[in-house]
Amino acid sequence: MKVTNKFGVPETLVTLATREYYSKGGSQYSVTELLSPPRVRRLREQYDSEIKTDVTDLMWSMLGSALHVVMERGQTDGHVTEERIHAEIDGVTLSGQIDLQSEETGGVVITDYKFTSAWAVMNDKPEWEQQLNVYKWLVESVKRKKVVGLRICALIRDYSRHENREGYPAAPIQMIEIPMWDSVTAEVYVRERLEMHRDAKVNQDLGDPLPDCSPEERWQSETTYAVKREGRKTAIRVFKSIDEANELAQKEKGYVETRPGEPKRCTGNYCGVADWCEQYQREKANA
Amino acid sequence: MLEHELLKLDVSGFTEKKQGLTYLSWAHAWAHALKADPTANFHVHTFDGRAYMDVNGTGIVWVDVTMGGNTRTCWLPVMNHRNQPIQNPDAFQVNTAIMRCLTKCLAFFGLGLNIYAGEDLPLSFDEEVKEEKKEEKKEEKKKVELSAQEKDDLVLIGDTLLQYLEIQRSESDLKSYWKSNQGHIDKIKALLPDLYEIIVTKFKEAKEKVNG
Question: What is this structure's pTM?
Answer without folding.
Answer: 0.65
